[in-house]
Queue: 3 jobs
Job 1
Amino acid sequence: MFKVCLFPVIIFLATVLTTSSTQPVLKDTFKGYFLIGAALNQQQFSEEDPLSVGIIKTHFNSITPENVLKWEAVHPKPDSYDFAAPDRYVEFGEKYHMFIVGHTLIWHNQTPAWVFQSANGNTLDRDTLLKRMREHILTVVGRYKGRIKGWDVVNEALNEDGTMRQSPWLKIIGEDYLAKAFQFAHEADPKAELYYNDYSLENEPKRNGALALIKKLKSQGLPVAAIGLQGHDKMDWPTVEQEDATIAAFAALGIKVNITELDIDVLPPATRNRGADITLNVELQAKLNPYAKGLPDALQQALAKRYADLFSVFVKQRNVVDRVTFWGVTDAASWLNNWPVRGRTSYPLLFDRGGQPKPAFTAVVQAASITKP
Ligand code: GLA
């Protein structure tokens, strides 16, 4: 009799205690809304960084490789591919049941010079470069057919004014290099989702360029599944209105929207150019690295509010947003510690250098519950 009466009380107490001491889980918080991804470095997917791996397994259900599938890493020489690292990346994703993303097939950066040259060093002709592109895409996408579920086919083809970037791809092949890349990727894995990925698309001129580009690809029957908005954001850019309008504009083309490389830079701007051109390199000065000893609380709270504002847009647009991927796991390994200035102390993500959730983490979780029915 005594036992029967106490049992529900014990269960109740146990539930209250475990719930109040358990941290919310990002991927569960946004379940039914969108996937929550992280870009991983080699130590992370090789499970040599237990702190990050613990966070990844718990909170994320999608992964993107930071570098190992870029051309220079996977295909460093004309006749040699290096699949050791990407194989481990894909195995990691399968082990933890993640939606595995491939990044990136065709880009102007981190692509070796030989790609655009003949054996004697001359600039390649269109047909030979197209052949090389097809061979690369068929080999890389083909190797992970059915396992990598979505590919950034082309990265950063546009200038800030919305015109086409004069990359070696464009100069040698012409504007249809994008159509060809999508065609080859589809040929290699007809079931993979194919994406166009770029930064600063929240700015109207560049956004209009991307809208035109995708309309054209779609009119040619190419299967563009989604736009990737990189989301290398600042504290004051893009505005909530810009983010909302950008997502709506791409959704109106009948494609999905992925936020693919999200982070928020709290450090002082080092250049007037506020895009995400990875070739920028500014010299380190103390005034550009003001929070080397820690982020002041007011800024920590401002970052949390900024994350909450952006996530309220993603949640509002959850019918078209498929995935929100952070560019990194903890602040410790973010690229923003070394770009556009090497050696700064940056705070762009949801987990601090010790792997602890920041106020921004709580704010993001709350942004979901506010709008949940
Ligand atoms: C771009 C690329 C990414 C990465 C980031 C910075 O946004 O798409 O692969 O290089 O820059 O690390």
Job 2
Amino acid sequence: MQIIGNQVIRLQDVDSTNNFAANLLNTTLPPEGTAILAYNQFGGKGQRGAVWQAEPGANLTLSVILYPKKIPASSQFILSKMVAVALADAVDEVSGLSSRIKWPNDILLNNKKVAGILIESAVSGMNLSQAIIGMGLNVNQQNFEGLPRASSLAVEAGKAFDKEQVMQQLFSLLNYYYMVLQRGNTAKIDELYLEKLFGYREDGLFRHSGGIDKGKITGIKENGRLEIEFSTGRVMEFENKEVEFLY
Ligand code: BTN
């Protein structure tokens, strides 16, 4: 059953498709899977209060409304994993390249970030009741001045892409993995996420708690925290931005 992207609201200019989706949810009951797509976002939001910059018309900036069932608020990171897996898969399918997921949910091609995810969810009782899945995927943008770690599908693959086709591929894979999740197969999502996870079980250098240590990522906790085993044998857990990879 295809639910994602059956309805696409196309906007020319909007501050943020996530904000637009939130307003829509406050005033109406949009069907599950409704997508909001912007040609230009002038107040795009990134993770942890950052700004998401995207050249107008060159990329995909969109949000999808979901009403997930039986996902406890305490383990909502599974939704973030599911979206990262779908987005990474879509990137691979259309580009023919092999992306990695950088914890928590950046999508990398050749170690450069081509996509990011911002999920804003609401809780009712113990479980999630709604989620706005915001996704920024750099498709055809060529210049990333001042953003040395950012890139696009076009830069990495050396050719331009049809944004519409990329979006349809993304909807189809999001739909597929959302069904896997809603059938309760979280183990599959966990497995696919770890398969794509940048640095998983690989030796690396990490800056944390004011110092730099050797270690490797050994897992992701249910609450989304990153688990690292340091060469000293000490195992620690981190929130986003508490630790930096220095490969
Ligand atoms: C990140 O910091 O990596 C997350 C970026 C998320 C950007 C997308 S673009 C569409 C949606 N609307 C927003 O304002 N942000 C998300």
Job 3
Amino acid sequence: MPMPQSEFIWFDGEFVPWGDAKVHVLAHAMHYGSSVFEGIRCYETPRGPAVFRLGKHVRRLFDGCRVYRMEIPYSQETIAQAIKDTVSKNGLRSCYIRPLVWRGYGQLGVEPRTCPVQVMVAAWDWGTYLGDDALEQGVDIGVSSWRRAAPDTFPSMVKGGGHYMNSQLIRMEAADNGYSEAIALDVYGYVSEGSGENIFLVRDNVLSTPQVGTSLLGGITRDSVITIARDLGYTVQERPIAREELYMAEELFFAGTAVEISPVRSVDHMVVGQGKRGPVTAALQKAFFERVRGEAPDPYGWLDYVR
Ligand code: PPE
């Protein structure tokens, strides 16, 4: 099934029709995964469309490019504005936004720095990530036989295109085993994250999630969940999590831009809690959706209105 399209893509500083946003087959990124991207959501609010935590996403994009020595030929302000313009130019209200920075056509060979750095921003309608029932019913997952990269291999705090080859292995294995998604362990055998989202567990009203700095992306949804949970009075621990804690958890849920907050109802065929969304997950989901949709106060300035 082809993806939903919109009309225009912001491509190196100007809008081009969706179908004309093309790159050469010898572009560096095609061969070596040399790209850094973001995934951002824009929600419909009573004051019009609002991009969720725009500044933090743009900053992560620039941080990632810095690690890979990719000099973005635009300022953070220009990219932030391009993101908002892409939403409004396409007349979108709630959508998923995908900014991408990549090394384009120049020379092949692993040393990339002779290739031009290019930037695009696309946006389209992207509904629920793990299926329409996922947010309410939860999903069935397994622990992957693939691990996340060790800290001295890929910089996992960077959303690098090539890193997602590992995510694809995790995701395909999960699907082949009949799961919606899988959890990967890190090189030390501790719980890391899913192929495209962070994981939280709940036990005795305490939330736990693996700490940043070993092998996971410091998710912006993860950060939002931690903040909201503490606002609601829950204790949150960022710490190493053993695999068996997944089986002992009363609640488990994923957090990510695409997946939003999605409950997990079984791991490795073992039922989590009551086998449906638990009360803490429900409370966090409610508070999260109220904030992103502008239905609750926005104490941290998380909403960036498009107009
Ligand atoms: N870990 C990984 C590996 C990851 O890809 C994401 C986002 C997260 C954690 C959560 O980060 P954040 O979105 O800042 O809360 N994954 C993006 C891409 C998903 C895709 O399939 O493509 C996303 O959710 O947009």
